[in-house]
Amino acid sequence: MTTPPRRHLGLGLLLVLSLLAGLGTPSYGEPGSTARVAARKAVQQDKRIVVSWKGERKRRVYQKSASVPGIGQVDLVCRPKSTQIRIRPNSRAPETQLWMAKFEQKNGRDVVAVKNVRVYTYATAADNGRGGTGPKAHEGLNQKSPIEDFRKGNAYGLISQRPGRNLDGGGALATPATSFQLTWWWERFAYPGHQYCNMALTLHTDTTRQFGLSWHGTDEGLRQTTSTTTIPGLGDAIVTCEPGSNANDQTVAFRPTGAKAATSFLDYEYIQGEGDVDDHVDHVDDLDHDPVTGLLGPVDLPRNGMMRLWVSIGGVKKAYVLSSNYVVNNDAKPGVNACEVAATPLP
Protein backbone atom coordinates (compact mmCIF):
# COMPACT_ATOMS: atom_id res chain seq x y z
CA MET A 1 0.00 0.00 0.00
CA THR A 2 1.30 3.44 -0.82
CA THR A 3 1.87 6.14 1.74
CA PRO A 4 -1.27 8.32 2.25
CA PRO A 5 -0.96 11.75 0.66
CA ARG A 6 0.23 14.63 2.83
CA ARG A 7 -0.85 18.23 2.78
CA HIS A 8 2.50 20.04 2.89
CA LEU A 9 3.14 23.68 3.58
CA GLY A 10 6.43 23.19 1.79
CA LEU A 11 9.89 22.90 3.29
CA GLY A 12 10.80 26.44 2.32
CA LEU A 13 7.86 27.96 4.20
CA LEU A 14 8.55 25.80 7.26
CA LEU A 15 12.16 26.97 7.34
CA VAL A 16 11.11 30.61 6.99
CA LEU A 17 8.65 30.25 9.87
CA SER A 18 11.38 28.66 12.00
CA LEU A 19 13.75 31.51 11.28
CA LEU A 20 11.12 34.09 12.08
CA ALA A 21 10.53 32.37 15.41
CA GLY A 22 14.26 32.69 16.10
CA LEU A 23 14.36 29.19 17.57
CA GLY A 24 16.75 27.49 15.17
CA THR A 25 16.43 25.69 11.86
CA PRO A 26 16.66 21.95 11.43
CA SER A 27 19.37 20.88 8.99
CA TYR A 28 18.29 18.01 6.78
CA GLY A 29 20.80 15.46 5.52
CA GLU A 30 20.77 12.63 3.05
CA PRO A 31 18.56 9.59 3.76
CA GLY A 32 19.53 8.02 7.07
CA SER A 33 21.97 10.81 7.90
CA THR A 34 22.44 12.65 11.17
CA ALA A 35 21.02 16.17 11.50
CA ARG A 36 22.79 18.54 13.88
CA VAL A 37 20.78 21.39 15.35
CA ALA A 38 21.75 24.47 17.34
CA ALA A 39 19.26 27.03 18.66
CA ARG A 40 19.66 30.54 17.20
CA LYS A 41 17.90 32.32 20.04
CA ALA A 42 17.76 31.06 23.61
CA VAL A 43 14.52 31.09 25.58
CA GLN A 44 14.94 30.62 29.31
CA GLN A 45 12.06 31.09 31.71
CA ASP A 46 10.96 29.89 35.13
CA LYS A 47 7.47 30.39 36.54
CA ARG A 48 5.49 29.24 39.55
CA ILE A 49 1.75 29.50 40.04
CA VAL A 50 -0.21 28.53 43.17
CA VAL A 51 -3.92 28.00 43.75
CA SER A 52 -4.60 28.18 47.48
CA TRP A 53 -7.87 28.82 49.31
CA LYS A 54 -9.85 27.70 52.36
CA GLY A 55 -13.18 28.22 54.07
CA GLU A 56 -15.89 30.62 52.91
CA ARG A 57 -13.84 33.45 51.48
CA LYS A 58 -15.93 35.75 49.34
CA ARG A 59 -13.34 35.92 46.58
CA ARG A 60 -11.85 32.52 46.19
CA VAL A 61 -9.30 32.11 43.39
CA TYR A 62 -10.03 28.69 41.92
CA GLN A 63 -7.72 28.94 38.90
CA LYS A 64 -4.27 30.26 38.03
CA SER A 65 -2.80 30.36 34.52
CA ALA A 66 0.64 30.79 32.99
CA SER A 67 1.95 31.16 29.46
CA VAL A 68 3.93 28.31 27.90
CA PRO A 69 6.49 29.92 25.56
CA GLY A 70 5.74 29.34 21.90
CA ILE A 71 2.80 27.03 22.66
CA GLY A 72 -0.02 28.68 24.60
CA GLN A 73 -1.34 28.53 28.14
CA VAL A 74 -1.50 26.08 31.02
CA ASP A 75 -4.25 26.30 33.68
CA LEU A 76 -4.24 24.96 37.21
CA VAL A 77 -7.77 24.44 38.54
CA CYS A 78 -8.94 23.48 42.03
CA ARG A 79 -12.68 23.64 42.62
CA PRO A 80 -14.77 21.36 44.83
CA LYS A 81 -16.16 19.88 41.61
CA SER A 82 -13.09 20.17 39.34
CA THR A 83 -9.40 19.47 40.04
CA GLN A 84 -7.22 19.45 36.92
CA ILE A 85 -4.27 20.69 34.91
CA ARG A 86 -5.27 21.97 31.46
CA ILE A 87 -3.41 22.95 28.31
CA ARG A 88 -4.73 25.59 25.87
CA PRO A 89 -2.49 25.85 22.77
CA ASN A 90 -2.64 28.97 20.65
CA SER A 91 -3.58 26.70 17.75
CA ARG A 92 -4.66 23.08 17.46
CA ALA A 93 -3.11 22.76 13.99
CA PRO A 94 0.22 21.52 15.46
CA GLU A 95 0.50 18.38 17.60
CA THR A 96 0.66 19.57 21.23
CA GLN A 97 1.35 17.07 24.00
CA LEU A 98 1.35 17.35 27.79
CA TRP A 99 2.98 14.28 29.34
CA MET A 100 2.93 13.72 33.07
CA ALA A 101 3.75 11.01 35.60
CA LYS A 102 1.29 11.19 38.52
CA PHE A 103 2.34 9.81 41.91
CA GLU A 104 -0.28 9.29 44.63
CA GLN A 105 -1.84 6.71 46.89
CA LYS A 106 -4.74 4.52 45.85
CA ASN A 107 -6.32 1.94 48.15
CA GLY A 108 -3.34 2.28 50.47
CA ARG A 109 -0.77 1.61 47.72
CA ASP A 110 1.81 3.93 46.15
CA VAL A 111 0.84 4.16 42.49
CA VAL A 112 1.95 5.99 39.35
CA ALA A 113 0.09 6.76 36.14
CA VAL A 114 1.64 8.09 32.92
CA LYS A 115 -0.74 10.39 31.04
CA ASN A 116 -0.49 11.98 27.60
CA VAL A 117 -2.86 14.90 27.07
CA ARG A 118 -3.00 15.90 23.38
CA VAL A 119 -4.50 18.74 21.36
CA TYR A 120 -4.43 18.39 17.56
CA THR A 121 -6.37 18.74 14.32
CA TYR A 122 -4.95 15.83 12.34
CA ALA A 123 -4.84 12.41 14.02
CA THR A 124 -2.91 10.82 11.11
CA ALA A 125 -1.34 11.80 7.82
CA ALA A 126 -4.54 10.86 5.97
CA ASP A 127 -6.96 12.59 8.38
CA ASN A 128 -9.32 15.11 6.79
CA GLY A 129 -9.23 17.31 9.88
CA ARG A 130 -12.37 15.86 11.46
CA GLY A 131 -10.55 13.40 13.68
CA GLY A 132 -8.97 15.95 15.96
CA THR A 133 -9.65 17.29 19.44
CA GLY A 134 -11.17 20.49 20.76
CA PRO A 135 -9.05 23.59 21.42
CA LYS A 136 -8.02 22.48 24.93
CA ALA A 137 -7.53 19.29 26.92
CA HIS A 138 -6.99 18.41 30.56
CA GLU A 139 -5.91 15.73 33.02
CA GLY A 140 -7.98 15.36 36.16
CA LEU A 141 -6.23 15.01 39.52
CA ASN A 142 -9.11 13.38 41.39
CA GLN A 143 -9.57 9.61 41.44
CA LYS A 144 -13.35 9.56 41.87
CA SER A 145 -16.47 11.49 40.94
CA PRO A 146 -17.79 13.24 42.94
CA ILE A 147 -14.34 14.33 44.05
CA GLU A 148 -13.06 12.59 47.16
CA ASP A 149 -12.95 14.43 50.47
CA PHE A 150 -9.15 14.26 50.76
CA ARG A 151 -6.38 13.73 48.22
CA LYS A 152 -2.70 14.58 47.81
CA GLY A 153 -0.09 13.79 45.18
CA ASN A 154 2.67 15.05 42.95
CA ALA A 155 3.68 14.84 39.31
CA TYR A 156 6.32 15.87 36.84
CA GLY A 157 6.17 16.13 33.08
CA LEU A 158 6.70 18.22 29.98
CA ILE A 159 4.79 20.12 27.34
CA SER A 160 6.04 19.96 23.75
CA GLN A 161 4.83 20.68 20.24
CA ARG A 162 5.67 19.70 16.68
CA PRO A 163 3.95 20.05 13.28
CA GLY A 164 0.63 18.23 12.89
CA ARG A 165 0.66 14.66 11.66
CA ASN A 166 -0.52 15.81 8.23
CA LEU A 167 2.99 17.32 7.85
CA ASP A 168 6.54 16.13 8.31
CA GLY A 169 7.61 16.09 11.95
CA GLY A 170 10.59 18.33 11.21
CA GLY A 171 13.38 16.45 12.99
CA ALA A 172 14.82 18.11 16.11
CA LEU A 173 12.62 20.29 18.33
CA ALA A 174 12.04 23.78 16.95
CA THR A 175 9.34 24.93 19.42
CA PRO A 176 10.36 25.38 23.08
CA ALA A 177 9.65 22.44 25.37
CA THR A 178 8.60 23.24 28.94
CA SER A 179 9.03 20.90 31.90
CA PHE A 180 6.97 21.11 35.08
CA GLN A 181 6.57 19.82 38.61
CA LEU A 182 3.14 19.77 40.25
CA THR A 183 1.86 19.15 43.79
CA TRP A 184 -1.72 19.04 45.08
CA TRP A 185 -3.45 18.71 48.43
CA TRP A 186 -7.12 19.19 49.20
CA GLU A 187 -9.25 18.18 52.17
CA ARG A 188 -12.71 18.51 53.73
CA PHE A 189 -14.36 18.85 50.31
CA ALA A 190 -17.41 17.11 51.79
CA TYR A 191 -17.84 19.93 54.33
CA PRO A 192 -18.73 23.30 52.75
CA GLY A 193 -17.30 26.17 54.75
CA HIS A 194 -14.33 24.09 55.89
CA GLN A 195 -12.81 23.13 52.54
CA TYR A 196 -9.13 23.62 51.76
CA CYS A 197 -7.03 23.32 48.63
CA ASN A 198 -3.42 24.03 47.69
CA MET A 199 -1.91 23.34 44.27
CA ALA A 200 1.51 24.50 43.05
CA LEU A 201 2.94 24.28 39.54
CA THR A 202 6.56 25.08 38.67
CA LEU A 203 7.40 25.56 34.97
CA HIS A 204 10.85 25.60 33.38
CA THR A 205 11.82 26.41 29.78
CA ASP A 206 15.39 26.28 28.46
CA THR A 207 15.78 25.95 24.69
CA THR A 208 19.58 25.84 24.90
CA ARG A 209 19.38 22.43 26.61
CA GLN A 210 16.33 20.78 25.08
CA PHE A 211 16.56 18.05 22.46
CA GLY A 212 14.34 15.60 20.61
CA LEU A 213 13.27 14.12 17.31
CA SER A 214 9.97 14.00 15.41
CA TRP A 215 9.11 12.37 12.11
CA HIS A 216 5.75 11.45 10.58
CA GLY A 217 5.57 8.61 8.06
CA THR A 218 8.25 6.13 7.03
CA ASP A 219 9.44 8.31 4.15
CA GLU A 220 10.47 11.11 6.49
CA GLY A 221 11.74 8.62 9.05
CA LEU A 222 14.21 7.24 6.54
CA ARG A 223 15.52 10.77 5.89
CA GLN A 224 15.51 11.86 9.53
CA THR A 225 16.53 8.84 11.57
CA THR A 226 18.84 10.64 13.99
CA SER A 227 19.00 14.05 15.64
CA THR A 228 22.12 15.37 17.38
CA THR A 229 21.86 18.48 19.55
CA THR A 230 24.83 20.23 21.13
CA ILE A 231 24.13 21.21 24.75
CA PRO A 232 26.34 23.79 26.51
CA GLY A 233 28.38 22.31 29.35
CA LEU A 234 27.41 18.74 28.48
CA GLY A 235 28.20 17.79 24.88
CA ASP A 236 25.88 16.13 22.38
CA ALA A 237 22.48 14.56 22.99
CA ILE A 238 21.70 11.95 20.32
CA VAL A 239 18.21 10.59 19.59
CA THR A 240 17.83 7.73 17.10
CA CYS A 241 14.49 6.35 15.91
CA GLU A 242 14.60 3.96 12.94
CA PRO A 243 11.45 3.13 10.98
CA GLY A 244 10.65 -0.31 9.57
CA SER A 245 9.43 -3.68 10.80
CA ASN A 246 13.04 -4.86 11.27
CA ALA A 247 14.22 -1.66 12.97
CA ASN A 248 15.60 -2.15 16.46
CA ASP A 249 17.29 1.18 17.18
CA GLN A 250 15.08 3.62 19.10
CA THR A 251 17.54 5.06 21.57
CA VAL A 252 18.93 8.10 23.39
CA ALA A 253 22.61 8.68 24.15
CA PHE A 254 24.97 11.43 25.29
CA ARG A 255 28.45 12.26 24.07
CA PRO A 256 29.99 14.26 26.94
CA THR A 257 32.88 16.61 26.21
CA GLY A 258 35.68 18.13 28.25
CA ALA A 259 38.52 16.89 30.40
CA LYS A 260 36.18 15.01 32.75
CA ALA A 261 34.13 13.22 30.07
CA ALA A 262 35.90 9.91 30.71
CA THR A 263 34.60 9.81 34.30
CA SER A 264 31.03 10.78 33.42
CA PHE A 265 28.10 8.47 34.08
CA LEU A 266 24.36 8.22 33.46
CA ASP A 267 21.45 7.35 35.78
CA TYR A 268 18.06 6.81 34.17
CA GLU A 269 14.60 5.45 34.82
CA TYR A 270 11.55 4.43 32.80
CA ILE A 271 8.01 5.33 33.84
CA GLN A 272 5.36 3.54 31.78
CA GLY A 273 1.72 2.53 32.12
CA GLU A 274 -0.30 2.68 35.33
CA GLY A 275 -0.15 0.77 38.61
CA ASP A 276 2.10 0.15 41.58
CA VAL A 277 5.26 2.25 41.58
CA ASP A 278 7.41 -0.85 42.12
CA ASP A 279 6.00 -2.40 38.93
CA HIS A 280 6.01 0.67 36.66
CA VAL A 281 9.17 2.59 37.56
CA ASP A 282 12.47 0.95 36.55
CA HIS A 283 15.66 2.71 37.70
CA VAL A 284 19.26 2.12 36.55
CA ASP A 285 22.27 3.69 38.29
CA ASP A 286 25.83 4.45 37.21
CA LEU A 287 25.99 3.55 33.52
CA ASP A 288 29.58 4.53 32.86
CA HIS A 289 31.30 6.19 29.90
CA ASP A 290 32.26 3.92 26.99
CA PRO A 291 35.90 4.75 26.09
CA VAL A 292 35.52 3.27 22.58
CA THR A 293 32.37 5.06 21.43
CA GLY A 294 32.76 8.09 23.71
CA LEU A 295 29.09 7.72 24.68
CA LEU A 296 26.88 7.39 27.71
CA GLY A 297 24.44 4.84 26.32
CA PRO A 298 22.69 4.40 24.02
CA VAL A 299 19.69 3.28 26.08
CA ASP A 300 16.28 2.32 24.72
CA LEU A 301 13.48 4.85 24.38
CA PRO A 302 10.09 3.89 25.84
CA ARG A 303 7.58 2.98 23.14
CA ASN A 304 4.83 4.96 24.84
CA GLY A 305 6.01 6.51 28.09
CA MET A 306 8.47 8.73 29.91
CA MET A 307 12.03 8.73 31.18
CA ARG A 308 14.11 10.70 33.61
CA LEU A 309 17.84 10.92 32.89
CA TRP A 310 20.66 12.29 35.06
CA VAL A 311 23.96 13.05 33.34
CA SER A 312 26.88 13.47 35.77
CA ILE A 313 30.11 15.12 34.59
CA GLY A 314 32.82 16.17 37.05
CA GLY A 315 30.46 16.03 40.02
CA VAL A 316 27.78 18.13 38.29
CA LYS A 317 24.48 16.32 37.70
CA LYS A 318 21.99 17.52 35.06
CA ALA A 319 18.43 16.15 35.21
CA TYR A 320 16.17 15.65 32.18
CA VAL A 321 12.60 14.54 31.61
CA LEU A 322 11.81 12.84 28.29
CA SER A 323 8.62 11.71 26.57
CA SER A 324 8.58 9.17 23.76
CA ASN A 325 5.84 7.79 21.56
CA TYR A 326 6.53 5.83 18.40
CA VAL A 327 5.02 3.40 15.89
CA VAL A 328 7.67 2.23 13.43
CA ASN A 329 6.61 -1.22 12.15
CA ASN A 330 3.35 -0.72 10.24
CA ASP A 331 4.45 -1.87 6.79
CA ALA A 332 0.89 -2.00 5.47
CA LYS A 333 0.29 1.68 6.26
CA PRO A 334 3.71 3.39 6.38
CA GLY A 335 2.05 6.79 6.56
CA VAL A 336 0.81 6.11 10.11
CA ASN A 337 4.29 5.34 11.39
CA ALA A 338 5.59 8.17 13.56
CA CYS A 339 8.21 8.95 16.16
CA GLU A 340 7.83 11.85 18.62
CA VAL A 341 10.51 12.36 21.25
CA ALA A 342 11.00 15.48 23.41
CA ALA A 343 13.39 16.10 26.30
CA THR A 344 14.16 19.15 28.41
CA PRO A 345 15.75 19.90 31.81
CA LEU A 346 13.61 19.46 34.91
CA PRO A 347 12.88 22.55 37.06
Strand elements, count: 22
Cα separation of the termini = 45 Å
Rg value = 21 Å
Low-pLDDT residue spans: 1-40
Q: How many strands, which pairing sense, and closed or not: the largest β-sheet?
A: 7 strands, antiparallel
Structural class determined from secondary elements: mainly beta
Provide the spatial order of strands within the biggest beta sheet.
2-11-10-9-6-7-17
**What is the overall pLDDT average?**
88
Q: Note the run of SSEs as H and E.
A: HEEEEEEEEEEEEHEEEEEHEEEEE
Features:
3 helices; 347 residues; single chain; six-stranded antiparallel sheet; globular; mainly beta
Could you characterize what this model shows?
This protein has 347 residues and is mainly β. The chain has two domains: 170 residues, no CATH class; 163 residues, no CATH class. 6% of the residues lie in helices and 51% in strands. It is built from three helices and 22 strands. The protein has a seven-stranded antiparallel beta sheet. A six-stranded antiparallel beta sheet has the order 12-22-21-20-16-18. Strands 1-13-14-15-19 form a five-stranded mixed beta sheet, with no helix packed on it. A hairpin with a 2-residue loop joins strand 20 and strand 21.
